[in-house]
Amino acid sequence: MAEMRLIVGLGNPGAKYEQTRHNVGWRVIDVLATRYQLGAGRSERRAQTWDGAIRGQRVKLAKPLTYMNRSGECLRALMDYYEIPLDRLIVVHDDLDTPFGALRLRKAGGHGGQRGLRSVIQHLGDREFARLRFGIGRPPGKMQPVDYVLRTFKGDDAIQATELAARAADAIEAWLSDGIELAMSRFNGDAPSQREGRSKADLEAQLAISQRAHELAPSDPKVLIKLVAIQKKLGMIDEALAGHLKLAALYDGLGESSRANAERVKAVAIRPALVDLQRAIAEWYLSQDQNKKAVARYLILAEYYREHDPAAALNEIERALAINPLHPKALAYQRSLQPQIETE
């Protein structure tokens, strides 16, 4: 059960809310359930859920039935029952501060006034989980936000909302198969209508300029950051990975260890097989007394090893337990791995 990923769309139950701006999270779940022929779903722990596989990942889709302001109650119940860690959760919700037609993937953050997300953070006791913001824009004129979010999409907006729900489902698929960093690089940004002029040829022209700028100023992190961003948009993953590692080395040379570690985190998100780098990240967290993040990193390593090397996975769990001997997820993981080790 620890391998399951939980995809939650926030919204309100009832026909009168179905097509409102506040229920775009539910619409994205519906798109995924239909796209992968997951059927009608079932009711459990005050949520409508679907089980299946998307992009080779075991998933549970969920639409809380507790109304928006109490979304965290059933989400926490699902995570506890299925022992789903925070790094396997993503929440889809409407966002007033994101322009209508745009998406924003985030690895963590606050609730920004979105009451469903606030409930989720309160019940999880943590903000370190992925979320996909579905932009609905600010209300026109003097309309109150509470009235605006409960209005349905009309005319061209309804067409665009349907298109964006499909694109949001694409972003969830990318999160599942490629990780949050690559998904962010592909899907964050302006609405598609605002991006039409940014063709591949435009990006290739920008790439050439950025590569030349990097050659002229190889020690300037800002230049390299821009180069890596363009490489990701063009699907140049190996080059982008090398760029993150160069940035880490540059920041180390500048004495900015926090930024260096952040670049290493981005590198292993692209290539989890860089296990030595994964451990270096965990050790840096330990050196900064960030024990919780160090434990999380060892659990990520354990997950990487689990299928092909259970003994190595168990070693990583033991590293986590050396930091926090009572960590519930690490203990559960240890119990699940022991039988595999004993039968080999």
The geometry reads as: globular
**Uncertain spans:** 193-198
How many beta-strand runs? 7
Strand order of the largest sheet: 2-3-4-1-5-7-6
How much strand content do the residues show?
5-15%
Q: How many helical elements?
A: 15
What class would the helix/strand composition place it in? alpha/beta
Order of helices and strands: EHEEEHEEHEHHHHHHHHHHHH
Percentage of residues assigned to helices: 55-70%
Instruction: Tell me about the largest β-sheet.
Output: 7 strands, mixed
Termini separation:
22 Å
- Radius of gyration, Cα only, in angstroms? 21 Å
Arithmetic mean of pLDDT = 88
Walk me through what this model shows.
With 344 residues, the chain is of the alpha/beta class. Helices cover 56% and strands 12% of the residues. About 2% of the residues have low confidence. 36% of the residues are buried. The chain is built from 15 helices and 7 strands. The chain is globular. The chain has a 7-stranded mixed beta sheet, sandwiched between helices. A hairpin with a 2-residue loop joins strand 2 and strand 3.
SSE map:
Blueprint: E1 5-9, H1 24-35, E2 42-44, E3 47-54, E4 57-64, H2 71-82, E5 89-95, E6 103-106, H3 115-124, E7 130-135, H4 145-148, H5 155-178, H6 180-187, H7 192-195, H8 200-216, H9 221-233, H10 237-253, H11 257-270, H12 275-287, H13 291-306, H14 310-323, H15 328-343
Parallel strand pairs: 1-4, 1-5, 5-7
Antiparallel strand pairs: 2-3, 3-4, 6-7
Task: Provide tags for this entry.
344 residues; alpha/beta; seven-stranded mixed β-sheet; 15 helices; 56% helix
